[in-house]
Design a protein that fits this description.
heterodimer, A: 116 residues, mainly beta, 11 strands, 0% helix, B: 111 residues, six-stranded mixed sheet, five-stranded antiparallel sheet
Chain lengths: 116, 111
């Protein structure tokens, strides 16, 4: 079974530019999550999709971040315009069940975003 | 405020030297606690889920335990390949499915 795939793996952009991150969850997983780790801090929740609907977007930092999940398959996270404090590693995770899964959430390898 | 604290921040062990990592939490209505392992450049890899105080789970050289306020990850006779960052995350459900992570413990096992 293919895991959670994220790309690009790295992105370096200038302040003010736009960047789009993509996540392909495990096939059949209705639940898709975005998390972010800023240097020196813990991994923090951004938002949760159930199929194509946003279940919880309480962790989104501000309106420069836009997440979509077209047709309930892959998801994109767009940052526009990017600021220096947006630098970090963005992780995507997916799960089949809504409740606490016995096997945990499956995470992708992340996209390292550097804003210069 | 819901909080997860892991200690120590970093730990260096000799191969075969057993030790424990701590994860303490202040979360109301805990529904589950996860332990993950993370290698450089990779995403967190699931190790264990614990649901209630007194529960224990084992996998190879690792054993995770849970009390009402904290969880321990015991590493018995570690090997260099156990070197990684170990992350603890709590799940408290309700209207959200989000995990609250600690900052992790960076473990280095020297041969």
């Amino acid at each position: 079974e293919a895991g959670v795939t994220q790309f690009p793996s790295h992105s370096v952009i200038e302040k003010g530019q736009t960047v789009t991150l993509r996540c392909d969850p495990i096939s059949g997983h209705d639940n898709l999550y975005w998390y972010r780790r800023v240097m020196g801090k813990e991994i923090k929740f951004l938002l949760h999709f159930v199929k194509e609907s946003k279940q919880d977007e309480s962790g989104m930092p501000n309106n420069r971040f836009l997440a979509e999940r077209t047709g309930g398959t892959y998801s994109t996270l767009k940052v526009q315009p990017a600021e220096l404090e947006d630098s970090g590693v963005y992780f995507c995770a997916s799960s089949q069940d809504l409740g606490p899964p016995n096997y945990g959430y499956t995470f992708g390898s992340g996209t390292r975003l550097t804003v210069v | 405020e819901d909080q997860v604290t892991q200690s120590p921040e970093a730990l260096r062990l000799q191969e075969g030297e057993s030790s424990s990592l701590n994860c303490s939490y202040t979360v109301s209505g805990l529904r589950g606690l996860f332990w993950y392992r993370q290698d450089p450049g990779k995403g967190p890899e699931f190790l264990f889920t614990l649901y209630s105080a007194g529960e224990e789970k084992e996998k190879e050289r690792l054993k995770a335990t849970l009390t009402k306020k904290e969880s321990f990850l015991h590493i018995t006779a570690p090997k260099p390949e156990d070197s990684a960052t170990y992350l603890c995350a709590v799940f408290y459900g309700g209207a959200t499915n989000k995990l609250i992570f600690g900052t992790g413990t960076l473990l280095a096992v020297q041969p």
